[in-house]
Amino acid sequence: MNQAWRMGCVGVLAAVVGCSSSGGGGSGGSGAAAQKCDTLVDKLCEKLGPCESLTQADCVSQVNQSFKQQFGATCSGADAVSATYDGCLADLGPSYQCSMGTPDNCKGVILFQQ
Fold first, then answer.
1. Which tops the pLDDT comparison, 66 or 21?
2. What predicted TM-score, i.e. pTM, was given to this entire model?
3. CA distance linking residue 95 with residue 70, whole number of Å
4. Fewest Cβ atoms closer than 10 Å to its Cβ: which of 47, 63, 65, 94?
C-alpha cells in the first residue's frame, strides 16, 4: 500500500506531525510509536512551549487536544515515527534555542494515518 505522508497543522508544533491520506485514522499502529510520540511531545513542549509562553502542562494539553481534533486520537493513535526521530531528539538538546525554530529533523516526525 502506498503511504504518501503529508504535513498536518497542529498549532505550536505543526511541523512535527504528518499524516497519510489512506486508512481509518487515529487507530494507532504500535505501542512503540505512541510511546515515542509522548516522549517527543514532552521534549518539544519543554523546548518550544516557553517560546510560545506556554507551560509544559499547557503545551502538552494543547498538542494532545489538537491531535485528537485532527486525527481522532492523542499520541496513543500515532502509527509511526519517521526515520529522523532520533535526530530530532538530539537537535532538541541543551544547545537548542527558541530562535532556531523547529529543527529540520523534527518536521513530519510523528505520523498518523487518515
1. 66
2. 0.75
3. 32
4. 94
